[in-house]
Write a structure and sequence with these properties.
The structure holds 5 protein chains of 5 kinds. Chain A is mainly α. Chain A has helices spanning about 10-15, 15-35, 40-65, 75-90, 100-105, 120-145, 150-170, 170-175, 195-220, 220-230, 235, 245-270, 280-290, 300-315, 320-335, 345-364; strands spanning about 180, 185, 190, 270. In chain A, the strands form 2 sheets. Chain A has a two-stranded antiparallel sheet. Chain B is globular. Chain E is about 35% helix and about 25% strand. Chain E contains 10 helices and 10 strands. Chain E has a 6-stranded mixed β-sheet with strand order 6-7-8-3-9-10, sandwiched between helices. A 4-stranded antiparallel β-sheet of chain E has the order 2-1-4-5, covered by helices on one side.
């Protein structure tokens, strides 16, 4: 795995350089972007940030842990729907039922919606719910030593199942249309540009926070152990660890991050629907991570932002060809630069002095 | 030593990030949750006026929505050739909704706040409309939505030029009642429109004395209908009410034939199969029925002109269909409202819209200023061997739009 | 009785299509370890080939039979191109083949949309397949029975190829020890290519069955790919009989669940059942001692 | 028959074989000896084509085969019996043989011939090769390679890990093969005495380099011992 | 016998692969403080025996160490019970430095939450292990660039950090030079005083030089057991295994790391 081969720059990026990179990104997202972008573009960037948050988690689980999590849409959806349910209830007002239940059903609300009236409960649920689901699923899958392609396929099947379930439960979750029309966000009017900027800042801030978590984990013993598990799972067993537990932690962390991303996506995009969480959406997240560099610190986040931007920009200019671009992206990146764009600067950097060295060797 | 420094740096960075987040939280908390209407940025000073055309030109819905885009562009071209709106040439700003509701929401925001268009035309799926609704209300913009839908909605900022349920579903039921249908089987895709439509159908059927002998849903993208069709065979209904969407119809019609059903045993009435979709099912669909407000075969002078212009522009093999006609009509209606209001301002437009009419290909349509829908005539067509629709039944004149079915006392929205 | 025969027979027909799709995967995934997510699009290519064959040979009676070998060839050649252009560089990165072929699938799907339109095109069944046989109250369409025949032929052909022919021995030898096969004078590159050709070609044959059942459309492959993979995994790698049983079970169980609940619920429950099953038997229905893919 | 000129081979960052020159004369037999890890197997794998060389040339019958794939070299008359009694465990003994023989016009006769050479295999034809004993598998491996009708036979440790009573049998077969005029042999063997008896020339490989070479025969045992003791 | 209080007792250990008994009713008593060598022809079941003791393959019978029956435990539990092993092909974490490799091996003794912290300084036991294996100068080099022998030492070092009371070493000196073998042997003698060490080995020279006890395995069974001299004198051993040693040089040709890497590729 050349991605993780320790070139000096890569090593540096894991330590101080990584922190510097995060600081620069924070500066760009939290200070520069709000100053130069229009409200509309800033909203778009906020959406990309939500995907980036999920991508950071994928970088942890896939890049560092070797688990190709092809169904992160599930967790993105859990967070997104939890938040959206709260916002719908907020819009409906105390004691009232969300509008769509009146339209599609008989106007009664299922009991499990009730707790989401509480903002505090919702915030807790956005973290705890995906963690629990990931724990149960991960435990079941990883303990049986399901890995590699099997893991990926089961994961994707999960995303398909989840989206189908959402579509099928139209009276409870809005079905294919999903949940939309959120006038307020914890009391803040969502039509007000100032508040939109605030929500953007929260999303960007959460992205930075997730990056800091991953940066820290990367430096910790756990980070080493995770990479070790990816590269030689059996060997880790003989260090006295159960590799399943190590991977489980990364899987759960990735799930929580995806959920946080989804939770911010709902108010920023104004909608969360099955098409934001299905297999295709999950794969788009993977595309960003692959592009940026699965095993690098900033790569997944930047890659996700780039893919989000590319989707907006390319679909504006070449509306019929976005699918081709997306497909080509997978083919070119995975085939030619499997370690992602993040691997290019260190590679170039490493290539330069080596040429000098070989010349020296030749003259010797 | 070095590690403690690192920790310090880490916590500082974390604190910094947190501070940034918190400081940016200084949002304004307005108490009235209503739309703080943003000032319109529409530029009406020049001799052109920008209009947004927002349809999916990529993704699953592209093939349907592209036809809407085509007729919008045709209408714009005709209007421009005729002197424009209030003397201003239409400058279309095209965007792709990519068959994804979230993208529709994003793009309509761009069109209204960044491109500053005077109005947006487009949307197809209910999901796309629902996603655009808060955005268009939030920025007090205008959206013209050209597709028949499940009703139960009326927004100050949206004009609905397709049918609402009392202009398509209810006429279809009236047609069935007129044919003496006693038993009905409901088959639909598992999403909003079929679910809502069937809720209405079931209540109206009870009123009409028609028995519902089965109700089946299949996921949107599923092609396998054999199990459900076996249930139809078993139920032997007088008619099948089909609310299946898109390509899923092909598998349904195939399974229906294979198991020995046909127009003479248990005929189908569809609300999503039009001139565009029928050829995909070939001869299998011949003899079946569809409920719309427009067919290519409608004989009006306006329709003759429309078909001629459309085929001249896009090719003689191109059929015209209900949503295309509704989109074409929507742009002309907008022109007529604006010219009545003598203003592009949204509030002025809304104030002037009531009673504005247009001699559309389907016949004369008139806007209801209360609910922003238009009065339309209900038509039932029977599919012939050329995959065209022969009109076999029509409502008595245009039906006033009633999106919330307030005029129907059998309707109980909270009943299951 | 009807409530039992109907799902059983419809499920068996659905299982047959699933089996043809899964047989190709059993070869490329089970034997070669390549996770080809574009396999569904090869299925789609087979369906469109059926449609195109009908455009050229207008007699539906003949064209469908003709479409079977042509679809095999078209999908096989697509597979060959994929192998030669991309997969051959990635045998040591099985997980990455998954992602690359996802990209290939996207491109093929968009290509089909651009070439044929998103609406789908009709495929007429031949006269000799019109009608149905009434089995205990269920009108079993001849086309559905035909897919079962097609599946049995594909299965028999594949089994004979692997067990009886020289090329089958070469495939099995290459799977077991690539270097050794090479030094026995077998061109393992050639074996790879042909294996991929045959596996992809089988998807094309599956496409004919799909076209007969539900016509063509650009996205039809996506609804088969995940179930087909689950069938291969649940059946046990390298186990044809496992694949057969798993395909039949998934088809029939889904049909019964659809009958009892709804189509969406059936999908959800079937997936859940497969996941639970893989918890109990991660190595599938039938086990063979073989290298894992991980 | 086979000539290696300045061949270097390595894995990843480390070179294992350095600048080796070696020749197997037509009809002759050559032994390569050396400690574990000296690079003997690596050298053979490069000669057969399973490993790319870093530099140097490999000639087979005077033709440069350095860039050819293994199966192409096999078609040019190179037969290889790898270390470890390798076979295709899920194929039967007969299938193991037919795998090779099928492509040849006189395949059936050839199978019959090698079964005469290894009569013990006759009774094992329907059995899966994975269930054979080590000695039986080695006989199968040699028989299978003979079916490719090699003019040069490359044997990597043919008696390693095999029960003593079978070893004698296999040594007999190898001795018979090396004695054939129409067959050249390149043999890697730990058993110095046997190797030198069976071959006419030896090379000693240490840390990937040829440190000594000479004529074979029992008299060379002491020389080889001395060379390897360094 | 009197030296060791600690011991690993194996009774009737059998490993059955679909009817083929790779290990067949093996009885062994392995005492602390002695260097045990396990020899025998290829396929005799030596590695399978170690695999069974470390949870890699399922075995039946009894393998008692302290209060545990190893056969019922999962691999990581066996490690935590104090039994460690190395592999024929050295498997160190190539991308981690020597120091990180050693440190990561110490994880057994840390609490779970400590894993979430970055490393602070070098723990004393890691330093000790580094000294013991003599790789102090290379502590910051990636393990991937180490020579084959050095990787084997690193693996032994990792076992030291793990504080494995029982060490099962699979051909630790294969491919090493004479000097390296000597150094390895001495290292094993040093660390073996408080440990139970079992070495699978083919190099009889090495066995003669360092073995306290030799167990000869053949066809899954224990053929004989005793001191080097006793074993060498055994006719059956000569027949199945040592027969040709007078004639052969460097008896067994197991895969050297490089060659194994080639086969794996």
């Amino acid at each position: 795995m050349s991605a993780a081969r320790r070139t000096p720059l890569a090593t540096a990026l894991r330590g101080w350089g990584g922190l510097l990179g995060i600081a620069l990104l924070a500066l760009a997202l939290l200070v520069v972007a709000p100053a130069v972008l229009s409200d509309f573009r800033l909203g778009n960037l906020g959406k990309y940030c939500c995907w980036a948050i999920a991508a950071v988690g994928i970088g942890l689980a896939w890049g560092r842990g070797g688990m190709l999590v092809m169904g992160q849409g599930v967790f993105f959806g859990i967070g997104g729907y939890a938040m959206a349910m709260h916002l719908k209830l907020e819009a409906a007002g105390p004691g009232n039922v969300p509008d769509f239940m009146q339209l599609y059903g008989d106007g009664t609300m299922p009991g499990w919606w009730e707790p989401f009236r509480s903002g505090a409960f919702t915030l807790v649920a956005i973290v705890v719910l995906p963690a629990l689901v990931a724990l149960v699923l991960g435990y079941a899958i990883l303990k049986r030593r399901v890995r590699g392609a099997y893991f990926a396929i089961l994961n994707q099947a999960l995303a398909v199942t989840f989206a189908t379930l959402l579509v099928a439960t139209i009276k409870q979750t809005g079905g294919f249309n999903g949940l939309n029309s959120f006038p307020t966000f914890f009391g803040y009017n969502l039509y007000d540009p100032v508040n939109k900027q605030m929500i953007y800042s929260i999303a960007a801030g959460l992205l930075i926070a997730c990056l800091l978590v991953v940066w820290h984990l990367g430096r910790s013993r756990f980070g080493e152990l995770l990479v070790a598990t990816r590269d030689a799972e059996e060997r880790v067993r003989f260090l006295g660890h159960d590799p399943a537990n190590i991977k489980l932690v990364a899987f759960v962390a990735a799930a929580v991050m995806a959920s946080i991303g989804g939770a911010m996506f709902a108010p920023i995009a104004g909608i969360i629907s099955p098409s934001d969480v299905n297999a295709a959406a999950s794969i788009l997240l993977i595309a960003g991570v692959a592009l940026g560099g699965r095993a690098s610190l900033l790569g997944p986040a930047l890659g996700a932002i780039a893919v989000g931007y590319g989707q907006s920009a390319l679909s504006e200019s070449f509306p019929n060809h976005w699918s081709y671009f997306q497909g080509a992206l997978f083919i070119v990146v995975i085939l030619l630069i499997p370690a992602g764009l993040a691997s290019l600067p260190p590679r170039l950097w490493a290539a330069l002095p080596r040429r000098g060295r070989t010349r020296k060797a030749a003259t010797a | 030593m070095s590690t403690s420094r690192t920790r310090l740096a880490a916590s500082t960075a974390a604190a910094l990030a947190a501070a940034l987040v918190l400081s940016s939280c200084g949002g304004s908390k307005s108490d009235d949750g209503s739309a703080a209407a943003a000032d319109s940025c529409v530029d009406t000073s020049g001799d052109t006026i920008k209009l947004g055309f927002l349809n999916s030109t990529s993704g699953a819905m592209a093939i349907s929505e592209q036809t809407v885009r085509d007729s919008l562009l045709l209408a714009a071209k005709e209007i421009n050739a005729d002197g424009g709106i209030l003397g201003k040439q239409i400058e279309p700003v095209e965007e792709d909704g990519a068959s994804d509701p979230a993208v529709f929401a994003e793009k309509i925001g761009k069109l209204l706040t960044s491109d500053c268009v005077a109005a947006v035309f487009g949307g197809w799926t209910s999901a796309s409309r629902k996603a655009m609704l808060p955005v268009v209300e939030g920025s007090n913009g205008l959206l013209f939505y050209p597709v028949q839908y499940e009703g139960l909605e009326a927004s100050e900022n949206i004009y609905y030029t397709g049918a609402t349920t009392n202009q398509q579903i209810i006429p279809a039921m009236d047609f069935l009642a007129s044919k003496g249908v006693k038993t009905l089987f409901l088959a639909g895709s598992d999403y909003v429109f079929p679910r809502t439509a069937n809720k209405i159908i079931k209540q109206y059927a009870a009123e009409l004395g028609i028995e519902i002998v089965g109700e089946e849903y299949v996921p949107l993208d599923s092609d396998d209908w054999s199990t459900q069709v076996a249930k139809i065979v078993k139920a032997k209904p007088d008619f099948v009410f089909n609310t299946i969407n898109g390509s899923s119809n092909v598998g349904f019609i195939k399974a229906y034939y294979e198991q020995g059903l046909g127009p003479d045993t248990s005929p189908i009435i569809s609300v999503s199969i039009a001139e565009e979709e029928a050829p995909a099912m070939g001869k299998d669909v011949t003899g079946q029925f569809a409920a719309w407000n427009y067919f290519q075969s409608v004989e009006t002078p306006a329709n003759e002109a429309f078909i001629e212009a459309f085929q001249a522009e896009y090719g003689a093999d191109r059929p015209t269909s209900d949503p295309m006609e509704a989109a074409y009509t929507s742009l002309y209606l907008y022109k007529n409202i604006v010219e009545k209001a003598e203003s592009f301002d949204v509030d002025d437009v809304n104030a002037a819209s009531d009673g504005v009419s247009f001699d559309a290909p389907e016949g004369t349509v008139t806007i209801d200023g209360e609910n922003h829908h238009i009065a339309k005539t209900g038509l039932i067509g029977r599919i012939n061997a050329e995959n065209q629709f022969d009109v076999v039944w029509s409502s008595e004149g245009p039906i006033e739009p009633d999106p919330f079915l307030e005029g129907y006392d059998w309707w109980d929205p909270s009943a299951e | 009785m009807e409530s039992f025969t109907t799902p059983l027979l419809t499920g068996t027909s659905t299982g047959a299509i699933l089996l043809i799709a899964a047989l190709g995967l059993a070869l490329t995934f089970g034997q070669m370890g390549v996770i080809n997510m574009a396999h569904g699009e090869f299925l789609m290519a087979g369906a469109y080939t059926t449609y195109l064959t009908q455009q050229v040979v207008s007699s539906a009676d003949v064209s469908v039979l003709l479409a079977i070998p042509v679809a095999f060839l078209v999908a096989g050649l697509l597979g060959l191109a994929l192998e030669a252009g991309i997969i051959r560089w990635m045998y040591h990165r099985p997980l990455d083949t998954l992602l690359v072929t996802v990209g290939v699938g996207m491109v093929l799907q968009q290509l089909a949309k651009d070439l044929f339109g998103a609406q789908g095109d009709p495929v007429r069944e031949p006269g000799w397949l019109q009608g149905n046989l009434t089995v205990l109250g269920y009108h079993w369409p001849y086309t559905r029975m035909f897919t079962i025949v097609l599946a049995v032929v594909a299965l028999g052909g594949l089994a004979a190829l692997l067990k009886r022919t020289r090329f089958g021995r070469q495939i099995r030898a290459t799977v077991q020890n690539r270097d050794l096969a090479e030094t026995m004078g077998i061109s393992t590159r050639r074996v790879d290519r042909i294996t991929f050709f045959v596996g992809s070609g089988l998807a094309g044959v599956g496409g004919v069955a799909v076209a007969l059942a539900s016509g063509t459309n650009p996205t039809l492959g996506t609804s088969y790919i995940i179930p087909a993979f689950l069938v291969v995994v649940a059946g046990g790698l390298g186990q044809l009989r496992g694949t057969v049983l798993a395909a039949w079970l998934v088809g029939v169980v889904t049909a019964f669940l659809t009958d009892w609940f709804s189509g969406s619920t059936a999908q959800v429950i079937t997936f859940a059942l497969v996941v639970v099953f893989l918890q109990v038997r991660p190595q599938g229905l039938f086990t063979v001692r073989t290298r894992g893919l991980a | 028959m086979l000539e290696l000129r300045g061949v270097s081979v390595g894995y990843g960052r480390t070179a294992v074989v350095h600048d080796v020159d070696l020749e197997v004369p037509t009809g002759g037999a050559v032994a390569v000896m050396g400690h574990n890890g000296a690079g003997k197997t690596t050298l053979l794998r490069a000669a057969v084509g399973l490993l790319p060389v870093r530099s140097g040339t490999i000639l087979l019958d005077g033709v440069d085969v350095t860039r050819m794939r293994p199966h192409q070299r096999v078609r040019r008359g190179l037969g290889y019996v790898p270390q470890g009694q390798l076979c295709f465990p899920q194929l039967t003994t007969l299938e193991n043989l037919r795998l090779v023989a099928d492509g040849r016009p006189d395949g059936a006769r050839l199978v019959d011939e090698v079964l005469d050479t290894f009569p013990a295999l006759r009774g094992l034809l329907p059995r899966k090769a994975g269930l054979l004993s080590g000695g039986q598998r080695q006989q199968l491996a040699i028989a299978r390679t003979l079916l490719t009708q090699p003019r040069l036979l490359v044997l990597d440790e043919p008696t390693e890990g095999i029960q003593p009573n079978v070893v004698a049998e296999i040594e007999e077969v190898i001795a018979a093969l090396t004695a054939r005029d129409d067959l050249s042999v390149l043999l890697v063997e730990q058993h110095v005495g046997f190797a030198l008896r069976a071959t006419g020339r030896y090379y000693v490989l240490e840390s990937g380099r040829v440190t000594s070479s000479g004529s074979g025969g029992p008299g060379a045992v002491a020389d080889v011992r001395a060379a390897m003791a360094v | 016998m009197s030296r060791g209080r600690d011991y690993l007792e194996v009774r009737g250990l059998t490993v059955d692969f679909d009817g083929f008994k790779a290990v067949d009713g093996v009885d062994l008593t392995l005492l602390q403080g002695r260097l045990h060598f396990l020899i025998g022809p290829n396929g005799a079941g030596k590695t399978t025996l170690v695999d069974a003791l470390t949870g890699l393959v399922p075995g039946t019978g009894l393998a008692r160490y302290g209060a545990h029956d190893l056969l019922g435990l999962k691999p990581h539990r066996i490690v935590r019970a104090g039994v460690g092993r190395t592999f024929q092909t050295a498997t160190v974490f190539e991308e981690l430095s020597v120091l990180q490799n050693l440190d990561i091996a110490g994880g057994v003794h840390r609490r779970a939450w400590q894993l979430a912290l970055p490393r602070r300084g070098v723990p004393a036991y890691v330093d000790d292990a580094l000294d013991a294996i003599g790789l102090g100068d290379l502590r910051d080099r990636p393990a991937g660039v180490l020579a084959h022998g050095q990787k084997q030492w690193l693996e032994i070092g990792m076992l030291l950090v793990q504080d494995a009371r029982v060490m099962l070493l699979d051909e630790p000196v294969a491919g090493m030079s004479a000097e390296e073998r000597e150094a390895t042997g001495e290292l094993l003698q040093r660390i073996g005083r408080e440990r139970t060490i079992v070495v699978i080995e083919h190099d009889m020279e090495f066995v003669r030089r360092f073995a306290d006890t030799v167990t000869v395995m053949h066809a899954g069974r224990v053929l004989t057991e005793g001191t080097v001299a006793e074993v060498q004198a055994d006719e059956r051993v000569q027949e199945v295994y040592l027969g040709r040693t007078t004639d052969a040089v460097g008896v067994d040709p197991e895969a050297v790391a490089a060659e194994a890497a080639g086969e794996g590729a």
